[in-house]
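Much of what follows relies on a compact textual record of a protein's fold. Each token is a code from a learned vocabulary of local backbone shapes. The record below shows the convention in full.
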Amino acid sequence: MIDLSPLYALIAQLLPFECMQAGFMQQAMAGLLLLAPMTAIMGIQVVNFRMAFFSDAISHSAFAGVALGLLFAMDPGWTMPAFGLVVGLGIMILQRHSNLSSDTVIGVFFSGMVAFGLAIVSRDRSLARDLQRFLYGDILTISDLQILCLIALFIGLMVFQTLSYNHLLYIGVNPALARAHRVRVAVQQYFFAGLLALVVMFSVQAVGVLLVTAMLIVPAAAARNVSGSAGSMFWWALLINMSSVIAGLIISAQDWARTATGATVILVACGWFILSMIVSALRRR
């Protein structure tokens, strides 16, 4: 396995706080710093394409993925993203091959996956205790192998966005127009849905099922309030996400705080959103 100790040493050097000298805190920060740019760019597209409900359905399918892993004595850290990927692609396939509206399709999957997960958990009450850390998130337990997977996902996502960003804009405006410009709409949508599902599932470990959609939506919404173009919106979302995860992890480790890392990260992002609303209001005046 690749040695990640130089990365952890760099994090400790760049963030010379007492709490960041612990190895597990360096691992957690590495995971969050990899997730931040991915959720920033995907969050912008989720906001622009009105796919917040889609990401919410994927995150809640984590219940079923975790429950299946625990039931069959497999690592939930792997069954969860695998199951989320299947659900994300399943939603996209049904959207493309049925006459139902997108919200209806997503709602059916949302309800079915939550019910499936709860049904599995209800058969074994001891599973409920293990599900709690996925409900609230626990980035402090991230492993080196999971960080390596995040690095691979980050590289894959950046390659996809570099090649397909303009195509996704076409599809978001008008799929028929995109086809007229010879954009392979189905391929782009399937890749986007699969990557979004993986980003959401890995984010569940950071902030939990209840808050994972907020990690996508809140920074993108704040960036939209203060930006004047699609390019500046990305950089603002990246700044807000990166500062939120850094401040959130450090604050949560302080003796006077002792709060859940995921919740603290989202609260910092919400602070950014409030500030962006004030700036937007002052600009309008």
User: Anything to note?
Assistant: The domain at 5-209 is CATH 1.10.3470.10 (ABC transporter involved in vitamin B12 uptake, BtuC). The chain has a mean pLDDT of 86.
